Amino acid sequence: MLVRKARLQDASNVYDLVNSLSGDGTLLKRAFAEICENIRDFIVAESDAGVFLGCGALHLYGPHLSEVRSIVVMPEAKGQGAGGRILNALIDEAEEHGIHSVCLFTRIPDFFFKYGFRTVEEKTELPDKIFKDCQTCPRLHRCDEVAMVRGRIPRISILGPRIEAEQLVRISG
Ligand SMILES: CC(C)(COP(=O)(O)OP(=O)(O)OC[C@H]1O[C@@H](n2cnc3c(N)ncnc32)[C@H](O)[C@@H]1OP(=O)(O)O)[C@@H](O)C(=O)NCCC(=O)NCCS
Questions:
Q1: For site-directed labelling of 33, which of 7, 56, 158, 173 has its Cα 20 to 30 A away?
Q2: What's the 168 CA to ligand 1 centre distance in angstroms?
Q3: Residue 125 in contact with residue 76, Cβ under 8 Å?
Q4: How far apart are CA 123 and CA 137, in angstroms?
Q5: Residue 144's domain is classified under what CATH number?
Q6: Containing structural domain, residue 98
Q7: Which range among 43-57, 99-113, 126-140 shows the weakest confidence by mean pLDDT?
Q8: 80 lines ligand 1 (CB under 6 A)
Q9: 119, 147 contact by CB (below 8 A)
Q10: Looking at residues 147-169, what average pLDDT do you find?
Q11: Count of domains forming the chain
C-alpha cells in the first residue's frame, strides 16, 4: 500500500467516493470543482497495483488550526489499515506546518480516539469550523456529529471577528 499526496488525476476517484457517503451526512458533499481546487489538501492511499483505496484531506485555517475532512476508504478496502495511514499522514502534515491543533466533526469518535483526538464539549469552541461549514449545513439544527480536537483548542478564530495578522502570529506561535 502506498499513501501519497493526491494529484489532479485522483480528483474523480475522490469525488465519487466522498459523495457516495454524503447522502446520509457521513461526509460533507463536495463539488467536483471544489475537489479540484483543493486537491493539494488531499492524501490518497492506493494498492501496490495502483488501485485507489481511499482519501482524506487536511484543511488549513491558519497557524492556529487545521481540520481533517473527507476521510474515507473504499468499502472493499476497509479494515486493512488504509484509514489509519491516511489519518497519520494528515496529522504529520499538520505538524510539518507547525499547526498544533487539528479538529474534525464525526459520528465515529472511537476511530479517532486511537490517534490522539478527544471530544470537545461545545462545538462553539471551534468557531472557525462553524463559520466555514455549519452555518450553511442543512443539518445545522439537528447535527449528530461529535466535535473533536487533537492538541490544544485554539484561543482565536480568524473567520469570525477580524483580528490583526500580527496578533494571530503572536498568539498562535
Ligand atoms: C473510518 C474509516 C476511514 C476507517 O478506515 P479503515 O481503513 O477501515 O481503518 P483502519 O483499517 O486503518 O483501522 C485503524 C484502526 O481503527 C479501527 N477502526 C476502524 N473503523 C472504525 C470505526 N468505525 N470505529 C472505531 N474504530 C474503527 C480499526 O479497528 C483499527 O484499530 P486497531 O489499530 O486497533 O486494529 C472507514 O471505515 C470509512 O471509510 N468509513 C466511512 C466514512 C467515515 O465515516 N469517515 C469518517 C468521517 S469523519
A1: 158
A2: 35
A3: no
A4: 14
A5: 3.40.630.30
A6: 2-172
A7: 126-140
A8: yes
A9: yes
A10: 79
A11: 1
**pLDDT tens-digit map of 118-149:** 999 999 999 999 989 888 888 888 889 999 99
| Among protein residues, the one whose CA lies closest to atom 37 of ligand 1 | 78
CB count in 10 Å sphere of residue 5: 13
pTM above 0.90, yes or no: yes
The letter for the amino acid at 67 is: E
Mutate to test the pocket of ligand 1, among 46, 108, 144 (most ligand atoms within 8 A of CB): 108
Q: Cell triple for residue 6?
A: 493526491
String of b and e for 121-156 (b: at least 16 CB within 10 Å)? eebebbbbbbeeebeebeeeeeeebbbbbbbebbeb
**Helix (H, G, I), strand (E, B), or coil: what is residue 31?**
coil
Nearest CA to ligand 1 atom 26: 111
